[in-house]
Design brief:
elongated; mainly alpha; 85 residues
Length: 85
């Protein structure tokens, strides 16, 4: 029989993965900002705006995906617990 601990452990793994992705995204943002400040290109403001829009869309998509993953794992934990009864 499947143990609900498997899904609880998966939740921990996914939480760590999402936290790491967020950290990498924040570091990437700082790197891009630093590059744009140091590179005297005529369209830096436009590039910064496009990057910010992309970053916001990416973060929204990640938050949506994170919600779906955790909702699914919670459902699996509940299903296993119901099956045990």
């Amino acid at each position: 029989m499947v143990n609900e601990k498997i899904f609880e452990n998966l939740k921990n793994v996914y939480e760590l993965a999402f936290d790491n992705f967020k950290l990498i995204t924040e570091q990437q943002k700082k790197l891009v900002e630093m590059f744009l400040k140091q590179a005297p290109l005529p369209n830096n403001e436009e590039v910064a705006k496009l990057y910010e829009e992309w970053l916001n869309s990416t973060q929204k998509a990640l938050d949506d995906f994170k919600g779906i993953v955790f909702k699914g794992l919670d459902f699996m934990i509940e299903a296993v617990n119901k099956a045990k009864k």
